[in-house]
């Protein structure tokens, strides 16, 4: 090949490369536009939700377009998002997966979970392109927001852990009516082979020597014996010195087991006393015998956990998706639930139950014998 032909071929290859590169850049930019995103009929549903959200219209006049939330700007995640988006084109023009609102709702949970998983994996990269802890003036925020953002920084949370459903409606989560409405049917559900029983709800129990205590949901009953319509058993736990009215499940872990009136506090058996550096106080390991109605206890811890999870799934999803119990420590859950409970319709009993459920399955408790 002559030198002239080589030059022409080189220029041709470079020109073709430039056209391909320019074309791909144009295509990438064009498919980033909100107009392109909502051009598919199936996107009319999320479009309407977005247009009713604070990300579309707000007092500061800042609008987050589709790509601002769904297309990260770093090269790797940018290309990945574009490749994954090809499935939407396929389902729109080939399979017609979402022909109407009913079909969209049927797949809403699946689609939402996929987006949440991706945002969790990239540390909410698109959220952080606008929002950052460094730029936040926490003192200007509501008290509950200050508390949660401070906790988020301390525990390395990412935005999507809490802020689901801010631009689109949350998926409907089916209620487990058996767990939520019929927990009491598991009362007296135990056999002699069961080592541990659990209280179903707040329960008043008697002391053999006279007097009474109040047992919290999930309180564990050990060394139990059935006596007619009653169960005689031992509860174990820890008391913090100076606050003996509360029995906690573990040393330093404020998972309440029982509440003791003054006359009952002198009737506990002290097994051991330990100084705790975190609380800078003595903690007493104790046990006490109680007598409770057998209909108030069960060996079915799975039913109790199902009930607690149901409360979390249904009542804690009004503002965001439910947060897994292992997301916080047992003690952190107290503040988290207290800051959110007034936004729900939960009763005081439900708040106690969901708090203890979350604490018992917290990240510093999960995997233990509890």
Could you explain how this protein is built, in words?
It is a single chain. This protein is an alpha+beta fold. 41% of the residues lie in helices and 18% in strands. Strands 1, 2, 3, 4, 5, 6, 7, 8, 9 and 10 form a 10-stranded antiparallel sheet that branches. Strand 6 (243-250) and strand 7 form a beta hairpin. The model is unreliable at 175-180 (pLDDT under 50).
Sum up the overall morphology in one term.
Answer: elongated
DSSP helix fraction: 40-55%
Number of strands: 10
Helix count from the secondary structure assignment: 13
Helix/strand class: alpha+beta
β-strand percent reads 15-25%
Topology (SSEs and partners):
Blueprint: H1 3-30, H2 34-37, H3 44-51, H4 66-70, H5 75-95, H6 101-121, H7 125-128, H8 143-154, H9 177-181, E1 197-199, E2 203-206, E3 212-215, E4 220-227, E5 230-240, E6 243-250, E7 253-259, H10 262-265, E8 269-276, E9 281-293, E10 297-298, H11 301-315, H12 330-340, H13 348-360
Which properties best describe this structure?
370 residues, alpha+beta, 10 strands, transmembrane helix, transmembrane, electron transport, cell membrane
TL;DR?
Helices cover 41% and strands 18% of the residues.
């Amino acid at each position: 090949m002559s030198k002239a032909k080589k030059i022409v071929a080189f220029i041709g290859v470079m020109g073709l490369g430039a056209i391909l590169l320019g074309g791909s850049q144009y295509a990438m930019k064009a498919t980033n536009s909100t107009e392109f995103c909502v051009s598919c009929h199936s996107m009319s549903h999320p479009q309407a939700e977005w247009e009713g959200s604070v990300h579309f219209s707000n007092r500061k006049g800042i609008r987050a377009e589709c790509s601002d939330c769904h297309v990260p700007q770093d090269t790797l995640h940018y290309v990945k998002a574009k490749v994954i988006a090809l499935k939407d084109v396929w389902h729109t023009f080939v399979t017609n997966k979402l022909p109407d609102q009913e079909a969209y709702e049927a797949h809403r949970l699946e689609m939402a979970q996929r987006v949440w998983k991706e945002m969790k994996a990239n540390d909410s990269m698109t959220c952080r392109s606008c929002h950052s802890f460094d730029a936040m003036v926490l003192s200007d925020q509501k008290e509950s927001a200050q508390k949660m953002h401070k906790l988020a920084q301390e525990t390395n949370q990412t935005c999507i852990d809490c802020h689901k459903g801010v631009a689109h409606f949350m998926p409907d989560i089916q209620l487990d009516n058996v767990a939520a409405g019929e927990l009491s049917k598991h009362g007296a559900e135990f056999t002699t082979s069961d080592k541990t029983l659990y209280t179903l709800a707040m329960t008043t129990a008697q002391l053999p020597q006279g007097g009474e205590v109040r047992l919290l949901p999930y309180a564990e009953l050990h060394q139990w014996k059935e006596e007619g319509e009653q169960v005689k058993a031992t509860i174990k736990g820890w008391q913090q010195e100076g606050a003996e009215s509360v029995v906690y499940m573990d040393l330093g872990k404020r998972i309440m087991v029982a509440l003791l009136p003054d006359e009952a506090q002198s009737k506990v058996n002290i097994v051991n006393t330990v100084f705790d550096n975190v609380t800078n106080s003595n903690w007493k390991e104790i046990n006490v015998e109680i007598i409770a109605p057998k209909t108030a206890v069960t060996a079915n811890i799975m039913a109790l956990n199902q009930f607690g999870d149901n409360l979390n799934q249904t009542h804690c999803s009004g503002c965001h998706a439910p947060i897994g119990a292992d997301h916080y420590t047992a003690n952190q859950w107290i503040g988290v639930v207290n800051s959110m409970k007034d936004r729900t319709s939960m009763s005081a009993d439900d708040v106690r139950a969901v708090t203890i459920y979350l604490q018992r399955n917290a990240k510093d408790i999960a995997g233990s014998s509890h």
